[in-house]
Amino acid sequence: MNTSHLKFVKATAEFRSFSKAAQFCHVTQPTLSNGVSKLEEELGGKIFDRTTRSVSLTQFGESLLPTILSLLKLEEMIYLNAKEFSNPKTVVLKIGMSPLVSTKFVTLLTESFKAQNSKHEILLIEENLAILDEKLKKHELDLILVPVVKKSSSKNSIRLYDENLFLIDNADSPPSKVPINDIRDKTFVMVPDSCGLSEITRSLLRTTRKEVHEYEGKALSYQVLADWASNGLGSAILPKSKILPHIPKQQIFKSNKPVKISFEAKWLSKDNKPLKNMIQHFKNNTDQIAEGLAE
């Protein structure tokens, strides 16, 4: 099994386009398409449904994607551990992140830190909330980036950014904005209770003093969640960074103010000097990066 082919699958799943995925991977489109086809042949099933207009994961592809992402993270960890061993001066900081966190925001934040600290490497590890908390307690992670599900004060955390929440459903020509009270009677599609999104959705809908109606099935990913909602299985709520550009969406408002989801960084101790420096970098740069992404 060629790890390059796994990277091709990851990029294609993210961009839903062979041409964009090839550009991202710095290969030609035929090279990427052939790589994906070889992997499909090796694994005995189609990973993507291909049409002239779109590329989407099959059920087979959806079932494989989490394992593919885990394998690519392990590959990255092997290279970083080898680099740390062969060059003891290299500092590797391990950051855990919820899949709900904006990848673009994290990339800009960590790359700006690495640009100022050339002997530092950052390993990003995506996990669900319970696993992130457990790994932080065991000191397997230096820092975690997570959504604020329940508000609490802690000296070992900082606010990162807020992101607007949007409604997705199959309404014809929906307006760009929608009050929260206008959607409280809808049935909502959810993802499993592991990343924080479902609890945030429930908490938001409960503020309307109405019972929350949920679709019985669970979507395995944000992409599937949006697809199901767009095709009428129910409605869905997602932050903008997790919605593909072609999917119609409505910004949610409450009392004429945009409804937002907040994200934070959490750690156990700043005794580690490189970690202390990174936290300070986050404090100094999060607002500027968040403002740039909002424009």
Automatic annotation (TrEMBL):
GO-annotated molecular function: DNA binding; DNA-binding transcription factor activity
Assigned protein family: Belongs to the LysR transcriptional regulatory family.
Annotated ranges, domain HTH lysR-type: 1-58
Cited PANTHER family: HTH-TYPE TRANSCRIPTIONAL REGULATOR (PTHR30126), TRANSCRIPTIONAL REGULATORY PROTEIN, LYSR FAMILY (PTHR30126:SF96)
Organism name: SAR86 cluster bacterium
Entry protein name: LysR family transcriptional regulator
InterPro entries tied to this protein: LysR_HTH_N, LysR_subst-bd, WH-like_DNA-bd_sf, WH_DNA-bd_sf
Key words, A-Z: DNA-binding, Transcription, Transcription regulation
Signal peptide (residue range): none
SUPFAM superfamilies: Periplasmic binding protein-like II, Winged helix' DNA-binding domain
